[in-house]
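In the design runs reported in the main text, the only information available to the sequence generator was the tokenized backbone. The following block is the verbatim input for one such run; it is reproduced so that readers can re-run the procedure and compare outputs position by position.
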């Protein structure tokens, strides 16, 4: 009997190994394009007749040999305002800047081939105007620019959708004379308001500009993990995710409020950790959960399993995207602490009093952060205070 049981266990192990091998091969052979889109030189110019927003997007092909087509590129702008935008209008213009082709006078985007280790670009101009009697400057807050483009090549035809956030209004920096500190447990806490952050922001400049005037030695400056992630560009639209069979099946067992309870959310984790690790974590986690040991899936599936925010999990316009956790938060904290002269931490806080310090610079008092952030001074709605300064009493 023991010999038969051993044979069955070995057979099950071989079968599992075969399944994992097939999953990894299918994962590695998925259709994928080497093209990458980046944004630069975006400016907001206020004019007598309205507001002009202009910038450049660059499409780069890092592959040595593969040639990839870009047959389509359009822009979908969305305004976020402080009131009704019924009398506000926006027009767009896309001007190709191919290195060896002149743009058409009629504005038509013609199919272009991006050769290996080459790039192309497009200039984008968006003009915002308003009907007579509409106070445009008072209404405007943020512009969300989605670049809808197609990547076409040996992998097939892939629809891409990249979002660029352009702030149209910026609050003032925290000022020592007017700062409204909150009393905490043996500490003081100052939530710091910023504009809505995005990929056009330099995180060091954001921290320096908004918090620099109120920093003192001994302070700890924290930034939320989601704001840092969106600055790093770690978000994508679900439309660009192709859920695998594994993602569609495993997501069903998660709690409905979990960011892994949808096929696209779980597939985003699979794309980071790999299908084998996620499946093994799911099998082990489910087995241990049956005997009362919870949370093992998240321990085994990797740090990102706890950090992914599915749609509706963040503030607009990121509420329509899947936001991953930040990249290399420890290195970020040490670099910022060196520049600012105070401790820096990346944190994840919710309204239930849960405080998770993802990373912190050397010498940071994490017990202090637990006491100070437990009331969630930054909030989880539209407070736009992603920075919180903690000062020991």
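Verbatim output:
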């Amino acid at each position: 009997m023991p010999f038969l049981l051993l044979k069955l266990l070995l057979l099950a192990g071989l079968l599992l190994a075969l399944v994992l091998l097939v999953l990894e091969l299918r994962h590695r052979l998925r259709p994928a394009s080497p093209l990458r889109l980046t944004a630069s030189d975006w400016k907001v110019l206020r004019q007598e007749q309205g507001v002009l927003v202009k910038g450049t997007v660059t499409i780069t092909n890092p592959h040595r040999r593969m040639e990839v087509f870009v047959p389509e590129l359009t822009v979908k702008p969305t305004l976020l305002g402080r009131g009704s935008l019924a009398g506000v209008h926006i027009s767009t213009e896309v001007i190709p800047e191919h290195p060896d082709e002149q743009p058409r006078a009629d504005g038509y985007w013609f199919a272009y081939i991006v050769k290996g280790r080459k790039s192309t670009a497009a200039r984008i101009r968006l003009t915002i105007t308003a009907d007579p009697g509409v106070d445009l400057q008072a209404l405007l807050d943020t512009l969300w620019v989605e670049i809808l483009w197609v990547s076409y090549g040996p992998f097939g035809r892939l629809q891409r959708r990249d979002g660029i956030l352009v702030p149209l209004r910026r609050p003032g920096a925290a000022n020592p004379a007017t700062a409204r500190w909150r009393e905490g447990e043996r500490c003081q806490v100052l939530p710091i308001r910023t504009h809505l952050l995005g990929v056009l922001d330099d995180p060091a400049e954001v921290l320096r500009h908004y918090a620099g005037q109120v920093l003192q030695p001994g302070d700890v400056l924290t930034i939320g993990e989601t704001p840092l992630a969106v600055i790093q560009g770690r978000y994508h639209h679900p439309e660009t995710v192709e859920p695998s069979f594994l993602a569609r099946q495993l997501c069903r067992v998660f709690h409905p409020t979990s960011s892994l309870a949808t096929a696209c959310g779980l597939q985003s984790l699979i794309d980071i950790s790999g299908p084998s690790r996620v499946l093994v974590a799911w099998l082990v986690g489910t087995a241990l959960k049956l005997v009362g040991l919870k949370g093992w899936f998240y321990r085994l599936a990797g740090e990102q399993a706890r950090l992914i925010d599915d749609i509706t999990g963040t503030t607009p316009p990121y509420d329509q995207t899947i936001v991953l956790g930040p990249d290399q938060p420890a290195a970020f904290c040490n670099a910022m602490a060196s520049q600012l002269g105070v401790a820096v931490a990346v944190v994840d806080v919710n309204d239930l009093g849960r405080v998770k310090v993802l990373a912190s610079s050397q010498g940071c008092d994490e017990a202090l952060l637990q006491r100070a952030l437990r009331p969630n001074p930054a909030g989880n709605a539209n407070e736009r205070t992603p920075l919180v300064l903690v000062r020991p009493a």
